[in-house]
Amino acid sequence: MSDFQVDATPTLHPEYAATRRLDELRAAEYGHLDERGQVYLDYTGSGVAAHAQLRAHFERLSGHCFGNPHSESPTSSAATALVEEARAAILRFFNASPDEYAVIFTANATGACRLVGEAYPFRRGTGLILTSDNHNSVNGIREFARARGAQVTHLPVRAPDLRVPGEEVRAALGRRRGLFVFPAQSNFTGVQHPLRWIELAHARGYDVLLDAAAFVPANRLDLSRVHPDFVPVSWYKVFGYPTGVGALVARRAALARLRRPWFAGGTIQAVSALGGWHIMARDETAFEDGTLNFLSIPDVEFGVRWIEDIGIDLIHQRVHHLTSWLLHRLTGLRHPDGSPMIVLYGPEGTDRRGGTVAFNVLDRRGRIVDERIIARDTAAAGISIRTGCFCNPGAGEGAFGISERALRGFGFVGRGARSLEDYLGILGLPSGGAVRASLGLVSNTADVERLVTFLEATYSDRVPDPGGLKPRERC
Hints:
By secondary structure, the chain is an alpha/beta fold. The protein is built from 19 helices and 15 strands. Strands 4-3-5-6 form a four-stranded parallel sheet. It has a four-stranded antiparallel sheet with strand order 11-12-15-14, covered by helices on one side. Strands 2-8-7 form a three-stranded antiparallel sheet, with helices on both faces.
């Protein structure tokens, strides 16, 4: 259950009141949210940028000239210096030793995952173990593993909380060596998996890729205490701006085991066209293909300092209490006959869970309201939430209780499904996914109340009309 057992808003809780600085920050730096009447509850999708971040970007570019870093010119050297400052800032953010960890800039967390997948030494006799609630950007690594003969194992989430049992992780890690991949926080259910799995995997001979994209915006990840080999991050999810810049934070020892399948500008120490040979760069730049986004990478350094000045623990405290309140309010919604209005996917309390809350709305007959109806209606009301499968098919399969046998027997292609709608019908699913509300840096109680009161006013004692909905195109 949630931490709130009585109808008292979080504002009355002393620990929530201690986060009042975030309300002041919202008024000063994120005023566009309230000025435009926006309710933003999609922090797992993206953070929100502060005015200060945009001012810093403009002032830097309007006051200086920066050039492609791969040179010794003054403009090139200036850009290189800012890129290196950003690397150092990221290591400080994670409390990671530069002797142990390196920072590789990518376009996003997806790009970081691909770097690992394409270069990891999968071969026959090795394994790739993934929890089933990984994001598709992580799931795609299995195609590299399969192509090289490695054994791929998915560990399903289990009801009611949609967690992966620890005993199943331990059993899977006992079979062979390879790569173990799991999210620090599920982007579907908000479940936070035990970080102690990292050392367990290491003891069994596995490297570990820890997907931190949904975790780090509101939780401290201390790489002096836990030591995953690969950590993909998208920075826009942490502080909203810039987009197009992510990072792979990787142990140097693990990087040395990777073998890239190609080379590009900026990644090599020497190369011969006619001789047919190349020597990769000796440091992390061997993984940075072509010209870095050198005009935006300095914004990451500013964003990291911005979060550090606010305090990640303060953000965590705010998100924790708002998540508890959101769970309390959602599970308390009832139709006039007393039947529930909400079915929740994931933990009902805040123990080992983050600020990502997935659910569906039930009509007065107890049937799931099509998530496209919720998307349409909330958008018209100025409420930004997310609907669908959230690029996380395994968590969705667990949420709807679809067996592996059914999924293998009713494959999208094999059973003649011509569209996603056909596939959902074959599986007998009542919906194409769920509704997700996620909390972050400047969320407040008013955001939660706007969503909950809207859901109650719009769907209580009703059967919404599904007419006019567009076909689902992807999941």
